[in-house]
Amino acid sequence: MTIVAVVMQKGGVGKTMTATNVAGTLAMQGNSVRLYDANPYQSSSYQWGQVRIDSGVPQNLSVVRVDQNYGHAVTADAPNFDHIVIDCPPNLDMETRVAMAVADVILIPLRVGQFDAWSLAQTAQIVRQRRASVTTPVRAIAFVNAVPHYIKAELDESIDVIKEMEEDFELGPTIIDRAAYRKGAKLGLSVMELPPEYRDGKATDEFGTLMAGVFNG
Ligand SMILES: Nc1ncnc2c1ncn2[C@@H]1O[C@H](COP(=O)(O)OP(=O)(O)OP(=O)(O)O)[C@@H](O)[C@H]1O
Ligand SMILES: [Mg+2]
Asked: Which of 13, 116, 205, 215 is least surrounded by CB atoms within 10 angstroms?
């Protein structure tokens, strides 16, 4: 049983992409999964879950929106699911803090560039606070997401930013900008579950590496 929170206060970095793909991949592997959409302004994960209901895949993944008591709801749900995934909003307000307070693994996507590097330093402070408040280990994995193929030098800079913060974050695998992630979003599926005509072996390989780091790491 793992509770994964996908966190980054900066908008549009790929939290929902990551949360839906982690949840969908776990479900495909036969786990019972609950995905919490903790973004009160824009329920993208919830909408993905609604599309997923009509997609024909087994319904061992339920997507729910959160209310004020969701910290208690997660704790109450924990014994009833194999895994729980929380998709956070782009801020460090209540919903994100609750997620960080219950998570075993905190996944932090960022995009290439200085603004995201500054945001990551701020995220590190919250990760440290969380670690200081518990005796159990809390993993935090940062990775660069949606990298265009042509910016190798800038990607290396972002990877260095994460490596320099090795006391706070493990470095996760780089995820490239691929149409397969957007196709999965549209169909209510993870990249692992895409039908053959949309399947992208590179996407399944890289996301498989991320999953292995989270669940076998
Ligand atoms: N690796 C990727 N390849 C291609 N497109 C991607 C990838 N990651 C994210 N995207 C696209 O980028 C956009 C932003 O991603 P997403 O909605 O997951 O970010 P977010 O962090 O959840 O945003 P918000 O902070 O608004 O909740 C979406 O259109 C998504 O489909
Ligand atoms: Mg989102």
From this structure: 205
